[in-house]
Amino acid sequence: MSEAISATVSAPRKIDLNADLGEGGVHDEAILAIVSSANIACGGHTGDTHSMRTAVRLAKANGVAIGAHPSFVDRDNFGRTAQHPPLDLLFTQLCEQVDQLSGVATQEGCVLQHLKPHGALYNQAANDAALGNVLIRVIQHCNPQLRLVALAGSKLVKQAQAANLQVIQEAFADRRYNSDGSLRARSFADACIDTAAEAVQQTISLVEHDQLRSVDGELINIHAETLCVHGDGIHALRLLESIRSELITRGFIIAAN
């Protein structure tokens, strides 16, 4: 191929599409045929050995990368209420969750690829250096090869990179954002996106322009390497089907990082 011709051939664009799974959602099996990465609940907010094993097996069958999705130990609130446990206790609890899922994965011939904190822990750690340090310590202790999935543009991204961790910056196709780049709190009725058209629009804005529009109408810059749809949402499967279809139509390859 001549230089002139090769210069006109652009490399295929790639995006990782992930979902939080093993959380009791009714569409996990169908979702695992769509996404490229799965964050599997490992007992803090929900999940047990059986649900972990089921999710791992389904992910393996579909060639989906798997990661741990640990949480504050708070099943009553599904891990979505702010917590302030002693940091040493939290470290121990998170390590127990990651180790339990890692053990199941090993038994099934799989290896964990990443760690993504769940719910309130995810949001608090995004800008709380003390919680961020706990997550860093968990990875260093359990498996230094794990990549940390963190809110794109958050303080945690730079904190983890400074600790020599590999970081995957994440944005959400099914959540609305505040103008500072944080997620709209679920206490607001408009926190979640539940129509395929809007989820697709936000996805395309993110992957093609590194931007999205906040709830206040402000255009904010967000560069993400992975996009998430919450697997427990009642519209999750429909949103993911529409998002994947549009991404493929636009020439994107759906693949894990």
Automatic annotation (TrEMBL):
GO molecular function: 5-oxoprolinase (ATP-hydrolyzing) activity
Keywords: Hydrolase
CDD domains per the UniProt record, alphabetical: LamB_YcsF_like_1
Broad EC category: hydrolase
EC nos: 3.5.2.9
Coiled-coil zones: none
InterPro entries (alphabetical): Glyco_hydro/deAcase_b/a-brl, LamB/YcsF/PxpA-like
Pfam families tied to this protein: LamB_YcsF
PANTHER family: 5-OXOPROLINASE SUBUNIT A, UNCHARACTERIZED PROTEIN YBGL-RELATED
Name of the protein in its database record: 5-oxoprolinase subunit PxpA
Protein's organism: Undibacterium seohonense
Protein's gene: pxpA
